[in-house]
């Protein structure tokens, strides 16, 4: 696979990849159609392996939740930027938000093929802030964010048919 194809598979554009990994965009442009370029390939391999692991964890979380009947519905949260992703999920630092979103899309596709469903909730700082105020919630962490997400509207948890 070329560098360009690998970027696309991860949900990255060359511009985002260059910015996130501090690579000169002009130098990246020269190797986009190459099969391998050591420094860039190392970054891509890291992202690919991390993404594969993340997708598997997401799928297993939903499967376990279904077995335990722990939640009425399971929600994934996607972010438009790294700031909020990394604030609430610091373990994802270094993973761009667009890659996180692609991983959630992949996990959800696997789940749907197996008859399982999870909502995908788009994070909105404004809606979340309003929810915190309305509910007089003073804690602002990932658990609170997940609580907010479960109250948001997304695709149904189970097929209604």
Ends distance: 40 Å
Biggest sheet layout: 2 strands, parallel
CATH architecture: Orthogonal Bundle
Structural class: mainly alpha
Please give the order of strands in the largest beta sheet: 1-2
The CATH class is identified as Mainly Alpha
Report helical residue fraction: 55-70%
Radius of gyration: 18 Å
Number of strands: 2
**What is the CATH superfamily label?**
Putative cytoplasmic protein
CATH domain topology: Putative cytoplasmic protein
- Backbone shape: globular
Strand content: under 5%
> What count of structural domains?
1
**SSE series:** HHHHEHHEHH
Can you describe what's shown?
With 161 residues, this protein is mainly α. The chain has one domain: Putative cytoplasmic protein. It is 60% helix and 5% strand. It has eight helices and two strands. A two-stranded parallel sheet has the order 1-2. Helix 1 runs parallel beside helix 4 and helix 4 (38-68) packs across helix 6 (97-113). The protein is globular, with a radius of gyration of 18 Å. Residues 155-161 have low confidence and may be disordered.
Short description:
The chain has helices at 3-10, 14-20, 25-31, 38-68, 82-88, 97-113, 125-134, 142-151; strands at residues 75-78, 119-122.
List the helices and strands and how they pair.
Elements: H1 3-10, H2 14-20, H3 25-31, H4 38-68, E1 75-78, H5 82-88, H6 97-113, E2 119-122, H7 125-134, H8 142-151
Parallel strand pairs: 1-2
List keywords for this structure.
161 residues; mainly alpha; Putative cytoplasmic protein; two-stranded parallel sheet; 8 helices; 60% helix; disordered C terminus
